[in-house]
Amino acid sequence: MTPILIPLALAGLMHIVQFAVASYMANVDLGPGYTTSPRDRAPSREMRVTTARMLRAYDNHVQMFPFFAAAVLLIQITAQSSVVTIVAAWTYLFARALYVPAYAFGWKPWRSYLWIVAMTCCAILFIAALV
User: Fold this and answer.
1) How far, in Å, are 34, 46, 65, 82 from residue 14 at the CA level?
2) What distance in Å separates the CA atoms of residue 34 and residue 46, rounded to the nearest whole number?
3) Which positions, given as ranges, span the membrane (predicted)?
4) DSSP label at 41?
Protein backbone atom coordinates (compact mmCIF):
# COMPACT_ATOMS: atom_id res chain seq x y z
CA MET A 1 0.00 0.00 0.00
CA THR A 2 1.31 3.44 -0.86
CA PRO A 3 1.90 6.06 1.85
CA ILE A 4 -0.97 8.23 0.56
CA LEU A 5 -3.47 5.35 0.79
CA ILE A 6 -2.68 4.40 4.41
CA PRO A 7 -4.46 7.45 5.92
CA LEU A 8 -7.41 6.78 3.60
CA ALA A 9 -7.72 3.20 4.89
CA LEU A 10 -7.39 4.40 8.49
CA ALA A 11 -10.01 7.13 7.90
CA GLY A 12 -12.36 4.43 6.59
CA LEU A 13 -11.81 2.34 9.72
CA MET A 14 -12.28 5.42 11.89
CA HIS A 15 -15.58 6.04 10.08
CA ILE A 16 -16.77 2.53 10.94
CA VAL A 17 -15.73 2.85 14.60
CA GLN A 18 -17.35 6.26 14.86
CA PHE A 19 -20.61 4.83 13.47
CA ALA A 20 -20.49 1.85 15.85
CA VAL A 21 -19.90 4.03 18.92
CA ALA A 22 -22.60 6.56 18.01
CA SER A 23 -25.06 3.75 17.20
CA TYR A 24 -24.34 1.98 20.48
CA MET A 25 -24.86 5.21 22.42
CA ALA A 26 -28.16 5.87 20.62
CA ASN A 27 -29.28 2.30 21.31
CA VAL A 28 -28.54 2.74 25.02
CA ASP A 29 -30.36 6.08 25.16
CA LEU A 30 -33.39 5.28 23.00
CA GLY A 31 -33.69 1.55 23.54
CA PRO A 32 -33.58 -1.24 20.97
CA GLY A 33 -37.36 -1.08 20.54
CA TYR A 34 -36.94 2.30 18.86
CA THR A 35 -33.57 1.84 17.16
CA THR A 36 -34.60 -1.42 15.48
CA SER A 37 -37.97 -0.03 14.41
CA PRO A 38 -38.68 1.77 11.10
CA ARG A 39 -38.71 5.00 13.17
CA ASP A 40 -42.05 6.21 11.88
CA ARG A 41 -42.56 8.15 15.10
CA ALA A 42 -40.42 10.31 17.32
CA PRO A 43 -38.58 8.44 20.10
CA SER A 44 -40.34 8.28 23.45
CA ARG A 45 -37.08 9.04 25.28
CA GLU A 46 -34.52 11.77 24.73
CA MET A 47 -30.88 11.17 23.85
CA ARG A 48 -28.11 12.47 26.05
CA VAL A 49 -26.41 15.60 24.73
CA THR A 50 -23.19 13.64 24.14
CA THR A 51 -25.02 10.99 22.13
CA ALA A 52 -26.64 13.61 19.91
CA ARG A 53 -23.25 15.24 19.41
CA MET A 54 -21.65 11.91 18.49
CA LEU A 55 -24.35 11.34 15.87
CA ARG A 56 -23.82 14.84 14.47
CA ALA A 57 -20.04 14.29 14.39
CA TYR A 58 -20.64 11.06 12.45
CA ASP A 59 -23.01 12.84 10.05
CA ASN A 60 -20.34 15.47 9.50
CA HIS A 61 -17.83 12.78 8.59
CA VAL A 62 -20.35 11.26 6.18
CA GLN A 63 -20.31 14.63 4.43
CA MET A 64 -16.54 15.20 4.50
CA PHE A 65 -15.15 11.70 3.90
CA PRO A 66 -16.07 11.62 0.18
CA PHE A 67 -14.02 14.78 -0.41
CA PHE A 68 -11.02 13.22 1.27
CA ALA A 69 -11.40 9.87 -0.48
CA ALA A 70 -11.78 11.51 -3.89
CA ALA A 71 -8.76 13.74 -3.33
CA VAL A 72 -6.52 10.89 -2.13
CA LEU A 73 -7.61 8.64 -5.00
CA LEU A 74 -6.93 11.44 -7.48
CA ILE A 75 -3.41 11.82 -6.11
CA GLN A 76 -2.88 8.05 -6.24
CA ILE A 77 -4.29 7.57 -9.77
CA THR A 78 -2.30 10.46 -11.20
CA ALA A 79 0.87 9.38 -9.36
CA GLN A 80 1.29 12.82 -7.82
CA SER A 81 2.05 11.72 -4.29
CA SER A 82 4.60 13.95 -2.57
CA VAL A 83 5.66 14.96 0.92
CA VAL A 84 3.02 17.71 0.81
CA THR A 85 0.18 15.34 -0.12
CA ILE A 86 1.21 12.70 2.39
CA VAL A 87 1.41 15.30 5.18
CA ALA A 88 -1.97 16.71 4.13
CA ALA A 89 -3.55 13.23 4.20
CA TRP A 90 -2.15 12.40 7.65
CA THR A 91 -3.09 15.84 8.98
CA TYR A 92 -6.66 15.28 7.76
CA LEU A 93 -6.76 11.98 9.62
CA PHE A 94 -5.46 13.48 12.87
CA ALA A 95 -7.79 16.49 12.63
CA ARG A 96 -10.81 14.22 12.08
CA ALA A 97 -9.75 11.93 14.94
CA LEU A 98 -9.60 14.95 17.26
CA TYR A 99 -12.85 16.35 15.83
CA VAL A 100 -14.90 13.52 17.38
CA PRO A 101 -14.04 14.23 21.05
CA ALA A 102 -14.04 17.96 20.30
CA TYR A 103 -17.65 17.66 19.15
CA ALA A 104 -18.69 15.19 21.87
CA PHE A 105 -17.32 17.32 24.70
CA GLY A 106 -18.21 20.70 23.22
CA TRP A 107 -14.68 22.02 22.77
CA LYS A 108 -15.51 25.46 21.48
CA PRO A 109 -14.07 26.88 19.19
CA TRP A 110 -11.57 24.00 18.68
CA ARG A 111 -14.12 21.77 16.95
CA SER A 112 -14.53 24.39 14.23
CA TYR A 113 -10.78 24.86 13.89
CA LEU A 114 -10.30 21.11 13.46
CA TRP A 115 -12.99 21.08 10.76
CA ILE A 116 -11.20 23.92 8.94
CA VAL A 117 -7.87 22.05 9.13
CA ALA A 118 -9.42 18.89 7.67
CA MET A 119 -11.19 20.76 4.86
CA THR A 120 -8.00 22.71 4.09
CA CYS A 121 -6.15 19.40 3.77
CA CYS A 122 -8.74 18.22 1.25
CA ALA A 123 -8.29 21.45 -0.72
CA ILE A 124 -4.50 21.02 -0.67
CA LEU A 125 -4.88 17.49 -2.06
CA PHE A 126 -7.18 18.65 -4.87
CA ILE A 127 -4.88 21.55 -5.74
CA ALA A 128 -1.86 19.22 -5.74
CA ALA A 129 -3.67 16.93 -8.17
CA LEU A 130 -4.14 19.85 -10.55
CA VAL A 131 -0.51 20.97 -10.49
Assistant:
1) 26, 26, 11, 24
2) 11
3) 64-93, 113-130
4) S
Instruction: Give the whole-angstrom CA distance, residue 14 versus residue 113.
Output: 20
**Residue 7 burial (CB < 10 Å; 0-12/13-18/19+)?**
buried
Other beta carbons less than 10 A from residue 17's beta carbon: 11
pTM: 0.92
Query: Could you tell me how many residues make up the chain?
Result: 131
Where do the domains of the chain lie, and which CATH numbers do they carry?
Answer: 5-38+48-130 (1.20.120.550)
Contact 128, 84 (CB under 8 A): yes
As a whole number of angstroms, the distance between CA 75 and CA 129 comes to: 6
